[in-house]
Amino acid sequence: MDPVSDLARKVADARELCLAGDYTVGSALLRECVRSSIYLRRTLRNSPDLAPMLETFVDCTKREHAAVHRYVTALALLQQAKTSEVGPKKALERIAHTYSSPPQSPATASRKRRASILDTAAAAKPSLML
User: Does residue 74 sit within a domain?
Assistant: First the structure.
């Protein structure tokens, strides 16, 4: 087997684990795949056939790992809001800040920006009970 197909199989396995709900193992496997794909891209840099494909593969794997990481972070914040006495508005504000890019701290975000984030999150009306 060539290393690219082995790596693609590992990414598929990590994706299946995440879809099955085992985020800790799936996220760790995705992180390992990102590192392996970066290493593979460096080692096969001079190959004109594989270089563009590996560049795309690295970017896609990074994006997928970032999406899983954001989802796991949002789940952890919702779980924390469920177990603590934080109100739903504050919990939604925390979740909204995890999806903003670049991440803003409440101290640096303008008052209008915080209000728009809260209004957008309140309009979605997510359930805080897991």
Answer: no
DSSP letter (8 states) at residue 109: S
- Total domains in the fold of the chain: 2
| pLDDT of the residue at 100 | 55
Long-range pairs of 7-13 with CB within 8 A, sequence gap ≥ 24:
7/33, 7/36, 7/37, 7/40, 7/57, 8/57, 10/36, 11/61, 11/64
Same-domain pairing of 8 and 56? yes
Write out pLDDT tens, residues 30-67. Answer: 999 999 999 998 988 888 888 888 899 999 999 999 98
